[in-house]
Structures are given as C-alpha cells and as structure tokens.
Amino acid sequence: MMTFQQSNTRHKTTFAALMKFVEHSHHMIFARGSVQVRYVGLEQSMMIDATSIKNLEILQSARDPADTQHSLYGAINTTRTVAGARLLRSEMLQPPSSVATIEARLDAVGELVESAESCRALAKTLDNWKDLSQLLVLCARMDPARMQDSPTESYLRNLSNLHQDLGLIPQMASALQQTQSPLLETFRSCFDDIAFQTLRDMLAGFLDIDGLLEHTQGSARQQLLYFVRSGIQGMLDVSRRTYSETLADAH
Fold this sequence. Notes:
The chain is mostly helical. It is 55% helix and 5% strand. Helix 6 runs antiparallel to helix 7, helix 7 packs across helix 8 and helix 7 runs antiparallel to helix 9.
C-alpha cells in the first residue's frame, strides 16, 4: 500500500522501479498491501549535502572514514534499539526545520530527563526489544536457496521476536503513564491500541510459549522445534516426538 503526501507521478514511478529491482535482484515477491510508503516533501526539513556531512564529521571521522565513534553520531548515539539508531542517523542527515516539531521533541526529552523513573523504565524495556525490520520477510516470498536460514526457521524467529515485542508494549505504556508532554502522550495513546493485544492473542493461538520455556537447555535452533503448539500440524508433532525420544536415548 502506497500513500503519498504529494501526488507526484515521478516519485511513484521511481519507487515502483525500485521495488521491481528488489524483486528481480533478490528473487523476492512482496504480498499485496504489505508495504506502506509515505512520501514527505522537504518543506519542513533541511538537507545537508555530502561535503558538509564529511567536513562536519556528522557520521564519521574526517581522519578515518571507517571510524564512526569519533563523530557527532557516535558521540550522541545512546539508542537502545537498532531501529532507534537508524532513526537517529536519518534525523541527523535530514533534521526538521519546523519550530513546532523541534519544541515538541525538546519538551519530550526534557520531561524524560526530569523523570528518572520513567526514563529508566523505558530503557529497561527497550533493552529487551527485538529488531522488527526483518518482519517484512514474513510478507515476502523468497528463493529458499538465497536465505541464510531455512524459510521456516526464519519465519519462526521473526514470529518469536514479534510475540516478545508485543508483550513489551504494555510496559512501555506504563512507563509513560505519568508523562504530560504532547509527543509522549501521543506515543502512550498508540501503545494503548487494542490491536496489539489482539495480534498477540492470535499468535498465542498457535505459538506455545510455555512449551518453549520448558526446552531452554537446548540451542536456540532446537528451541524453535517446540515453538508451534501441538495439534497444529500432525507431521510436526510426530517429528518432534521422534526427535525427543532420540535425544532421550542418546543421553
């Protein structure tokens, strides 16, 4: 699904060509309605040219291009998630110029700085947050020969990460319960969306979290064998029973 803030045929055509390139070069086909793209113009943001980015050492050191720690990005990057690091990098390359946006972010940061309890609760929750960018793989059909893991294993790992992150959303909403800044209130209202719990309940219908916890002594790959509930697929149940009996005999 594509939604463009400005109707521009050139942008739509460019994006369509990019998607076709990804499909052909990576042998990947996306399901209809699985990708949402929002085009936003540059009216309320600034563009920094490549020369200024290099001279100002925004992303990397001028002495050593491979050194990102001794740069502005490296100095202020204390993000807890992969997605947060990507967003910070994007915002540094194209910072907002809207006074309202800047003031809203300053108010949110100021409130978190003053509320150490909320800040610590958020940080603790985000430390357990999984990177959900790979969830797009669930919406795409890929060539199994080009995947590092087997397709089934990759899907189960992504579903496991999704289930874990959905369980963390109420904790983030609770951490923001006492906040008053408009931006943090917006985040909290998004976390209160019942759709998150509905999706988690749907996953719990065929994912056996309790069964997975009972087999924590095995490797991460072995644990995935017990991630699907019994009764969902007969052959899977038989295979798991055989596997467990073989392990028992070996020990």
